Amino acid sequence: MYLRMMSDILKKKETHLEELLKLTKEQEFLLKEEELDDEAFNRTIENKDVHIKKIQEFDSGFQAIYNRIEEELKQHRAEMKEDIQKLQQLITRVTELGVSLQALEQKNKASMEARLQERKRGIKQFKVSRQTANHYYKSMVDVQQGTFMDEKK
Q1: Contact yes or no for 74/50 (Cβ under 8 A)
Q2: How far apart are alpha carbons 139 and 141 in whole angstroms?
Q3: Structural contact between residues 90 and 11, judged by C-beta atoms closer than 8 angstroms
């Protein structure tokens, strides 16, 4: 009974990890676009958050069940061999999904950081351009005032 519950939890976790992977791939696509669709990107973050919370719940539930039956599993390992192997296969699949997800998240993080650096450079360039324009206008006003004063003499 408990092994079946653990198996169900792992299957649900697998489904949510697959959804997370899809959403992360969607983020990867959005980050490759010339102009980032902030609204769509934020939607993927919100959707991912829902799945992450569910996965955390599954992890807690799985661990609680495992803690409850750990001794029984050790004592009756041979009798539960087939069920344990099925659990191990599910754990392997969930782990593979987690590794794939983590690798893609790192790639997306690097892309996002590069995009943010580009935005910072753009903002800095804008500030420098604005300052240059302000200095130019100020010097032009000074020149005009100086010219105006010279005409009076």
Answers
A1: no
A2: 5
A3: yes
Between these two residues, 62 and 149, which has the higher pLDDT value? 62
| DSSP label at residue 79 | T
Q: Which residues contact 24 (CB under 8 A, 6 or more apart)?
A: 44, 48, 101, 104, 105, 108
Instruction: Provide CB contacts within 8 A for 66, sequence distance 6+.
Output: 6
Q: What is the mean pLDDT of residues 68-73?
A: 90
Length of the chain counted residue by residue: 153
Q: Which amino acid is residue 3, in one-letter code?
A: L
Phi, psi (5° rounding) for residue 118?
-65, -40
117 vs 153: which has the higher pLDDT: 117
| 146, pLDDT greater than 70 | no
